[in-house]
Design goal:
The structure holds 2 protein chains of 2 kinds. Chain A contains 10 helices and no strands. Chain A is mostly helical. The longest helix of chain A is centred in the N-terminal third of the chain and has 26 residues. Chain A starts with a helix and ends with a helix. The relative contact order of chain A is 0.10. Chain B contains 10 helices and 4 strands; from the N terminus they run H-H-H-H-H-E-H-E-E-E-H-H-H-H. Chain B is mainly α. In chain B, helix 1 packs parallel to helix 3. Classes of the chains: A mainly alpha, B mainly alpha.
Chain lengths: ~190, ~240
């Protein structure tokens, strides 16, 4: 943390110098994860970063209470997810954001962009229709290529539970998105 | 016919579920089921890869800096925690001060084992009578915590105060002042023996008043003799 922040925060929080360095390191290594988790709910880059910043600010305030620092990422993921869900529920403009959420790959034609945008919209609709327990599992498994063990560690769940929920989520998505089979088969 | 039996198991297997040995054998032997499984598998893998691509967002270059500024701006729960801790510490300090004031004004404090019993004799006041120890169960005799009355020297001891020592400032009413002055006069004149005064604090405040109150004399009330006439009642009362 830079000097002005440390000087200002010295009156508010009780992090010492080593804790400040520790938090700084974890902030840099977990920024991607927090933003992506929030983006999985909000599908808006600016909103996702805003929620991730709020999660980091909360994590900073409680960092000294975290005994096992190796669980910081799991702690952060759950906090970010909860904040993002709260934001998503209170956001009335979500539908408009979904249209702008998909970024087409470079060099794609207008037809490709339209088809990809439609597929993305359907995918997000199908994900939104999933129960929250299944939703967070499928989102986390799609971030950084997390396997079942890593998702279980982040959520504090048994691996068997995560595997079961991942299967149910994929099954629900596949049933809702049967129409995408020709598109995916041509990729 | 057997394909319909295994279609759900094969579809679930494409989504990641385990497959039973007989369904696996059928999947390996049946071309139609293998094609359906491959199609379903492509769908699931396509959804996974599409979701992974959609979530591959990268935080902006100013993300870390904005997190810092956000931490600076928001007091956060730690500030509240510090505030509550400060309130708790202040309350504890006030409690300790209050207990100290109460104990000092009450004048009763428990005797410690290290205090010698001769301490009260040094002040010229006889020590409190010993209390028999209490036997608690088969362990034996336990020492009894006994309050020690802190006595204030009176009578001749008041005159031992050096002149350089300022007089104690005591808030008393004018009546109490007069009673105290009268008591000191009696002691100084030798009319009253200071050792005969009671030693407890409660008696200390009532003894002077008892000295200045004159004995109550009850004078007999003179009641005049009344003569009660005897004879028949007036005639007018029975006529009604």
């Amino acid at each position: 943390m830079h000097e002005s922040a440390s000087r200002h925060l010295g009156r508010l929080v009780t992090l010492d110098a080593s804790q400040e360095r520790d938090f700084e390191e974890r902030l840099r290594e977990s920024a991607d994860l927090a933003v992506r988790v929030a983006y999985g709910v909000l599908r808006h880059q600016q909103d996702a970063e805003d929620v991730a910043q709020e999660a980091f600010a909360k994590a900073y305030g409680r960092f000294s209470q975290l005994r096992d620092r190796t669980r910081f990422r799991a702690w952060l993921v759950r906090m970010t997810w909860r904040l993002a869900i709260d934001r998503w529920r209170s956001d009335r403009r979500r539908q408009a954001r979904e249209d702008a959420a998909f970024v087409p790959p470079p060099g794609a034609t207008a037809e490709d962009v339209a088809a990809s945008s439609e597929r993305a919209a359907r995918l997000w609709q199908a994900i939104d229709a999933l129960p929250e327990k299944l939703r967070i599992v499928i989102v986390l498994s799609a971030i950084h290529g997390h396997d079942v063990r890593e998702v279980a560690r982040l959520l504090g769940l048994p691996e068997g539970t995560v595997k079961s929920r991942l299967f149910l989520a994929r099954k629900g998505l596949a049933q809702r998105l049967q129409c995408l089979v020709p598109d995916t088969s041509t990729r | 016919m057997s394909c319909a039996r295994y279609v759900d198991a094969i579809a679930d297997h494409a989504c990641g579920a385990e497959i039973a040995p007989d369904a696996a054998r059928h999947l390996a032997a049946c071309d139609a089921c293998s094609a359906r499984f491959a199609e379903r598998r492509r769908l699931v893998e396509g959804l996974d890869s599409q979701l992974e691509r959609a979530l591959a967002v990268v935080p902006s270059a100013t993300f870390v800096r904005r997190v810092r500024s956000r931490i600076e701006q928001s007091p956060g729960p730690s500030a509240r925690l510090l505030w509550w801790r400060a309130c708790g510490a202040a309350a504890a300090i006030l409690l300790v001060i209050g207990i100290g004031v109460w104990r000092s004004s009450d004048g009763v404090r428990p005797r410690t084992n290290s205090a010698p019993p001769e301490a009260s004799a040094e002040s010229g006041v006889p020590a409190a009578p010993d209390v028999p120890p209490v036997v608690e169960g088969p362990q034996g005799v336990q020492p009894v915590e006994r309050p020690v009355v802190r006595h204030v020297p009176r009578g001749p001891a008041l005159e031992r105060r050096p002149a350089s020592m300022p007089a104690a400032e005591v808030l008393v009413s004018p009546d109490q002042q007069r009673a105290i002055a009268h008591l000191m006069r009696l002691v100084r004149d030798g009319t009253l023996d200071a050792s005969s005064l009671p030693v407890s604090r409660q008696d200390e405040s009532t003894a002077p008043a008892a000295l200045v109150v004159p004995p109550l004399t009850i004078e007999p009330i003179a009641v005049p003799d009344v003569e009660i006439p005897t004879g028949p009642a007036p005639a007018g009362r029975n006529s009604q």
